[in-house]
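Need a sequence for this fold. Nothing fancy.
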């Protein structure tokens, strides 16, 4: 009896060890010049490093444990080349070759490979886009260059439409696992999904999809975009008044009875600087006495760089330094410059205006 009990216990321990084993990634980058290069394992959910290792004999390895499936990205710099692949961290041994894009060994990685990586249409479109780039750089005249640019744009649009269709199909077939969550997030990034639509989808989704961090982040961004869309009241922002160096707020810089341009920008952003030098400085001088206020919100920047930019560009209108790094979150801004026009009552009447649109909007409201 004791012998049977001992055998049963041994079998249970073996089974428990198998069920609790972690993941092992067996990776390959079989190219010259990669020996000793660093490979990083990045958590896709929050874009933070999880682990790093080195390439030896064209190979690398990661090992760890996960409670449930988790999306990650592997990034390696080998000489002038950059290799990057997504992978699902799940229990088992995962094999990946980052040169030929092969991926296999566990259920979710096999599904990821068949759903996204092994796509002949994507490969065809990418090859044709590369051919367009080659045509552009070897063109004999501007007309040939323009033709290559137009062809590239058409192929790029076709690629986006194809990837969106694939992502939609994969999500519909996998609404209860991480591959479905990953596919839905790709779809949200490629298509203009609004907050209400995504919120409804996530409220009726399984745990694997509803709790996928990138989708939660997307929902938050879309909510903030909708909350600061045209017709909504502007949202306050905390920061530092550049002129005084004191703590201040966007609302403290808004002048009662004036129309206000709010410009999210940074000193290192070329398009931001062009909008300021070509339009905002001129428009402030031209319309300030007629009731126009302009407030620059400096984001993702360093104070000394901002100070030099203000001097170089000749900015005389108020500047709020986003020291809390919340301004862009509050407005769902994912790219700069982002320029808004707010009326005298504090309602956003235009969002995302650029170039000549700015003065036209000012003239209309004044």
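Here you go.
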């Amino acid at each position: 009896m004791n012998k049977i009990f001992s055998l049963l216990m041994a079998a249970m321990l073996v089974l428990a060890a198998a069920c609790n084993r972690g993941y092992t990634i067996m990776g390959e980058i079989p190219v010259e010049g990669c020996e000793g290069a660093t490979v990083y394992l990045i958590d896709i959910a929050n874009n933070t490093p999880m682990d790093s290792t080195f390439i030896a004999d064209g190979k690398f390895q990661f090992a760890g444990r996960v409670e449930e499936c988790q999306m990650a990205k592997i990034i390696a710099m080998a000489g002038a080349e950059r290799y990057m692949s997504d992978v699902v961290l799940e229990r088992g041994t995962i094999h990946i070759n980052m040169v030929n894009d092969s991926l296999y060994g566990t259920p979710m990685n096999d599904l990821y490979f068949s759903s996204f990586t092994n796509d002949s249409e994507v490969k065809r479109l990418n090859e044709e886009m590369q051919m367009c780039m080659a045509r552009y750089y070897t063109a004999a005249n501007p007309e040939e260059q323009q033709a290559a640019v137009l062809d590239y744009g058409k192929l790029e649009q076709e690629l986006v439409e194809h990837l969106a269709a694939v992502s939609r199909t994969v999500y519909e077939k996998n609404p209860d696992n991480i591959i479905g969550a990953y596919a839905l997030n790709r779809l949200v990034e490629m298509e203009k999904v609004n907050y209400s639509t995504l919120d409804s989808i996530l409220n009726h989704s399984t745990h694997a999809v509803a709790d996928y961090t990138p989708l939660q982040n997307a929902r938050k961004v879309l909510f903030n975009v909708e909350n600061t869309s045209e017709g909504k009241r502007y949202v306050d922002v905390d920061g530092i008044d550049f002129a005084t160096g004191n703590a201040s707020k966007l609302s403290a810089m808004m002048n009662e009875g004036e129309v206000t341009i709010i410009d999210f920008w940074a000193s290192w952003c070329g398009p931001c600087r062009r909008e300021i030098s070509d339009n905002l400085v001129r428009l402030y001088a031209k319309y300030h006495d007629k009731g126009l206020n302009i407030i620059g919100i400096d984001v993702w920047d360093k104070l000394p760089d901002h100070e030099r930019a203000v001097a170089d560009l000749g900015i005389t209108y108020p500047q709020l330094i986003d020291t809390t790094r919340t301004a862009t979150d509050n407005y769902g801004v994912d790219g700069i410059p982002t320029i808004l026009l707010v009326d005298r009552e504090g309602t956003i009447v235009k969002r995302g205006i650029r170039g000549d649109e700015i003065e036209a909007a000012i003239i209309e409201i004044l």
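For context: The mean pLDDT is 92.
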